Amino acid sequence: MKIAFIAHDRKKDEMVNFVTAYEHVFQGHEMYSTGTTGQRIMEATSLNIHRYMSGPLGGDQQIGALVAQDELDLIIFLRDPLMAQPHEPDISALLRLCDVYGIPVATNIATAEILVKAIDRGDFGWRDLVHKYKPGIEE
What is annotated as the active site (predicted)? Predict the structure, then answer.
């Protein structure tokens, strides 16, 4: 399974704590992240994460490109709903791509926990649905 982690500045500690708690579930999966979030996770765990640029510098768009190329199965994106983000258009574009391509995205700990528990059970059925009903994008 290919999983991406993104966290806004005020959510990075929460992300690190979450990934640390579920490190045993994430082992053996391919993981991606925006720059600082990935660095912080790797410093706190034994996980190896492919890091892209920081979100405001293009990392959100790089993760979005993986979604559009069918290279991701799940995104955990801990957003800060109380802080305006200078790269909000990039965030909206990423979330839109997740909707278009049927990629589950958790934007809070409660949803992230539900998805990670599904991974722990080996419940990957949503990928079959995504491939069965892959959207036909009209140009």
Answer: 60 (proton donor/acceptor)
What residue spans define the domains of the chain? Answer: 2-132
DSSP letters, 63-97, are HHHHHHTT--SEEEEE--TTS--TTHHHHHHHHHH
Which residue among 9, 60, 120, 123 is the active-site one?
A: 60
Count the helices and strands in the chain (H runs, E runs). 7, 5
- pLDDT (tens digit, 9 = 90+) per residue, 77-91? 999 988 878 778 888
Question: Known catalytic residue: 90?
Answer: no
CATH of domain 2-132: 3.40.50.1380
Q: Which residue has better confidence, 136 or 124? A: 124
